[in-house]
Design a protein that fits this description.
With about 425 residues, the protein is of the alpha/beta class. The chain has three domains: about 5-95 and about 200-260, Adenylosuccinate Synthetase, subunit A, domain 1 (Adenylosuccinate Synthetase, Chain A, domain 1); about 105-195, Adenylosuccinate Synthetase, subunit A, domain 2; about 265-420, Adenylosuccinate Synthetase, subunit A, domain 3 (Adenylosuccinate Synthetase, Chain A, domain 3, Alpha-Beta Complex). The chain has 13 helices and 20 strands. A ten-stranded mixed sheet has the order 9-7-5-2-10-1-11-15-19-20, with helices on both faces.
């Protein structure tokens, strides 16, 4: 049986949580393979709304084993806050598995994230201040603390002491902040040991055995393609690999096991944080998309920057990830518009670019070239087949599919779990 990857095809907030939940009842394992609590997935089931930040969306599907992979950075306080909140609402979280090799966010990582962002001023990245970037930096600098280290107090103390030798110098002498006490960090992390221990396992082995046994594994990305540290709009990106390639390194599943990559793409485009955004709207149309689409960050509550659909980005995401199927979300938000512009290419200093420009400078100065498609006024939330959609909505989906480089297999027509038009089977 296959491993299937779900990735965001824009700058995040495309609806990956809903897509994962849509498939949750048909898969055996759902693995979060990158990121931390710096992004959120919102899932609506009936009249209940769930905002997940660190936990895989599969935790809401009975019978599914949710897994936090080795590519994730974990704030243990947030982990248990989310677990407690779900348990209080009657959700069973007992099957959760956490990789022993995942890295842990220490309090000094959060402190450095916040003071560094303030120090950058106008050059800020737009981080969430939750310590994600500094923790990944520690990982690459081989100063990180892994989940398994929490169970050995001697090793844990040595690693915290080693990390703070440099970090306290930076905090006190560069940022004029107080030094962090080693004992405070060690004591906080040790306080989670008893509760954490039963859920920690060798997750690559667990997933290998599951695939050998014929189980289906769904790999769920945090963030999205244009925020990937290698393939995104650097430096305005996250600190991990949010593409399909990252699914392998962040889970321990080899690429030969993956046979489908599902890209989630919104029927328009949004972005949170700093960085270039060619189709961004600063007018009433942008405010309409924001209000109608409820475009406010699940994690931060920040208003999302809104713009029209960008087919150049969709083609890029399809190519970088090897997308086999797109899920087009929030088509309903476009209802009521007389015309719906779609960006088909960029103009950079008088030169047309049908693909992503080579340099960040060119992308920053890219001017969208639009084609206008006719809109529709009928409510589409009750549509369950492609034929149920108004003709102009069908034409919009068909046009976007042709421009994007992969078939559109499902369409979101509302916020609820069942507000989905399935065109092709995703598994």
């Amino acid at each position: 049986m296959p491993a299937v990857v779900i990735v965001g095809a824009q700058w995040g907030d495309e609806g990956k949580g809903k897509a994962t939940d849509l498939l949750g009842s048909r898969v055996d394992y759902v693995v979060k393979f990158n990121g931390g609590n710096n992004a959120g997935h919102t899932v609506v089931i009936g009249d209940q709304k769930y905002a997940l930040h660190l936990l895989p969306s599969g935790i809401l599907s009975p019978g599914c084993v949710p897994v936090i992979g080795n590519g994730v950075v974990i704030d243990l306080s947030v982990l248990f806050e989310e677990i407690d909140a779900l348990q209080a609402r009657g959700i069973d979280t007992s099957k959760l598995q956490v990789s022993a090799n995942a890295h842990v966010i220490a309090d000094y990582n959060r402190s450095l994230d916040k003071v560094t962002e303030r120090f950058l001023g106008s050059r800020k990245i737009g981080t969430t201040g939750r310590g994600i970037g500094p923790t990944y930096a520690d990982k690459m600098n081989r100063l990180g603390i892994r989940v398994q280290d929490v169970f050995d107090e001697k090793i844990l103390r040595q690693k915290v002491e080693g990390a703070l030798e440099l970090k306290n110098q930076i905090l006190t002498k560069v940022y004029n902040r107080r030094a962090v006490d080693v004992d405070e960090i060690v004591d906080e992390l040790l306080s989670y040991v008893d509760r954490l221990r039963p859920m920690v396992s060798d997750t690559p082995l667990l997933l290998h055995d599951a695939l050998v046994a014929g189980k289906t594994v769904l790999l769920e990305a945090g963030q999205a393609t244009l925020l990937d540290v290698d393939h995104g709009t650097y430096p305005f990106v996250t600190s991990s690999s949010a593409t399909a390639g990252g699914a392998c390194t962040g889970s321990g599943i080899p690429p030969t096991r993956i046979d489908r990559v599902i890209g989630i793409v919104k029927a328009y485009t949004t972005r949170v944080g700093e960085g270039p955004f060619p189709t961004e709207l600063h007018d009433d149309a942008g405010e309409h998309l924001r209000k109608t689409g409820l475009e406010y960050g699940t994690t931060t509550g920040r208003p999302r920057r809104c713009g029209w659909f960008d087919a150049v980005i969709a083609r890029y995401a399809a190519r970088i990830n090897g997308v086999t199927d797109f899920v087009l979300t929030k088509l309903d938000v476009l209802t009521g518009l007389e015309k719906v512009p779609v960006c088909v290419a960029y103009d950079v200093a008088g030169v047309r670019h049908d693909e992503m420009p080579l340099s960040q400078s060119d992308f920053h100065h890219a001017v969208p070239i639009y084609e206008e498609l006719p809109g529709w006024t009928d409510d589409i939330s009750a549509a369950r087949t492609f034929e149920d959609l108004p003709k102009n909505a069908q034409a919009y989906v068909t046009a976007v599919e042709k421009m994007s480089g992969a078939r559109i297999s499902a369409i979101g027509v509302g916020p609820d779990r069942d507000h989905t038009v399935v065109v092709h089977d995703l598994l």
